[in-house]
Design brief:
Length: about 750
Amino acid sequence: VRCWSNIPFLTVPLSRAHGKSFAHRSELKHAKRIVVKLGSAVVTRGDECGLALGRLASIVEQVSMLQNQGREMMIVTSGAVAFGKQRLRHEILLSQSVRQALHSGQSQLKDMAIPVLEARACAAAGQSGLMALYEAMFTQYSICAAQILVTNLDFHDEQKRRNLNGTLHELLRMNIVPIINTNDAVVPPPEPNSDLQGVNVISVKDNDSLAARLAVEMKTDLLIVLSDVEGLFDSPPGSDDAKLIDIFYPGDQQSVTFGTKSRVGMGGMEAKVKAALWALQGGTSVVIANGTHPKISGHVITDIVEGKKVGTFFSEVKPAGPTVEQQAEMARAGGRTLAALQPEQRAEIIYRLADLLTDQREEILLANKKDLEEAENKGMLALPLLKRLSLSTSKLNSLAIGLRQIAASSQDSVGRVLRRTRIAKALHLEQVTVPIGVLLVIFESRPDCLPQVSALAIASGNGLLLKGGKEAAHSNQILHHLTQEALSIHGVKDAVQLVNTREEVEDLCRLDKLIDLIIPRGSSQLVRNIQKAAKGIPVMGHSEGICHVYVDTDASVEKVTRIIRDSKCEYPAACNALETLLIHRDLLRTPLFDQIIDMLRVEQVKIHAGPKFASYLTFSPSEVKSLRTEYGDLECCIEVVDSVQEAIEHIHKYGSSHTDVIITENEQTAEFFLQHVDSACVFWNASTRFSDGYRFGLGAEVGISTSRIHARGPVGIEGLLTTKWLLRGDNHVVSDFSEHGSMKYLHESLPLPQRNAN
């Protein structure tokens, strides 16, 4: 028998064999039987008198949704005392107002005092109303609820425990949601700690304990404890260094300092943790989360069941490596050390990584072969993605060349002075480049992305978190190992971290206090999902690569087929591949048009006809379903336009502001196109495939951005830097520059220091 707070708990409940809790959050979606414990702070209004009806309605909606999915839901609720207090206060005020109106007149009504209300009386008055409220709410979802009142003594009687167990099982069998509460009307008097401004409330520890007991007794898969804090913190919430604990393991109690209790109830977080650990020992998974926050309370229960990172998850399985939060902190500390190195030292790290890519070629290709074999055996990737996953000797050689370009061009990237101003005499201002901070790069099926992005982060002095797809796990592992080996030559191994935990991308996007910029590298769907999931973190990238090539009436016959073939066929899965071919109407039924069609047929490109193009043909190819399609394969759309102006309007309406090309020999038409197309990259007589950091001479890129803020187009080192202002003075104060002050502003531009010619 284990005891705390003078309440005994049997370590192995009578009716239950020792079970096994879920090891990871992602497994919570398999929970069948769930107990939701609603603390007093969740159920009670902010004025501590009456119920938070909107919040309660939201909780009932979520429980109903899960119940209708076939799960077995139970609720352990507080609130009878608060509801009863509201009713009794109303009755007392009404009674007093009548008596005082008869004996003293209206003048003294405002001076009426509310007597101290006894908690058990409040509970007796509130229990029926609380249950009636639950019944009315659940009825809206065609769900029946049933009330069960228990006391601690009921658990000491074996027969009563059996009866309770049987009743609950029968209710669950009939698809009824049990609403369980301590019978606060008959429990022994509480300790004399006052709460609810004069009302002694039965300790919340009773309901925490009750929820844990029932969860284990009923062999529950998951216990959700909702309180008025986000979860368990390593120190009292609100203190400067308090950090939310994502996963709590048995034995971690020594690392936690418990603070004061919540505004209502008397148990506090310590009681919740003890109850949670006891339930965990009995085989029930536990999550403690905030049920009062207006932004999350409407979906907190369903989010927990879906495995999202909400609150504190209690687990018996401790991972071997650091958590993703710890990795982000390590990356930030490592990044700051990296930024403090000399430029030559950062370049040396990148040169070393380039050498390792060629020296360890066999090991890299062997790991990549494992990934390819597993992907092919499982049939998990389409052919274009398999091509992205594949590494080769030539790819590794190209990577090494690109990394050496980055090293050579990064000598003065960090700490470069962009502006110097003499504000006043002996008061000088500088604007200098600095790293952004910690970057999170999420990429799919492209292991070659890892060394590229790592080199750019190293050159720009940024900490880096990498999250690769599981399809490239072996390749990513060895490439990250080589990256850390290169970083180790100057003691900054931790600056680049590879996330190997079972972390969902959506959860990573919520780490707004640890991550400064998210860069997705993958499908348009991945980018859209990340842009939607990011909570307060900027996302750099593009959701789609709908690139156009416009063939003008003055286009060169020799150039057209070469540029179109390269744009579409050289690498059709790339984001900078041609997707829509715009042809001037005057070129239809000309030899040039026939050459274009013949070339596409030879290259086995499937053609989709745009609406106008289809109208010119008796037998047309399949008409396009949407002019906003990124095919990512040997397919493209052909559409007809009447002028360069119409081509520009089409691009603006259906394009993605990525890369667009004009083929013409008319310089005036070309310049009009270049100046008026509002895309990140606009080319004249050149393939769309040139839209690439390596081909631009940036060495590599972290991605191509179609954003209009900070960085646009292929993003290299410059796009991973921001600035800070340095002001050097000598006893300067603003009051000296007032109307009658002794100093005047000069605001003179000063020459910049010479950049390193190398």
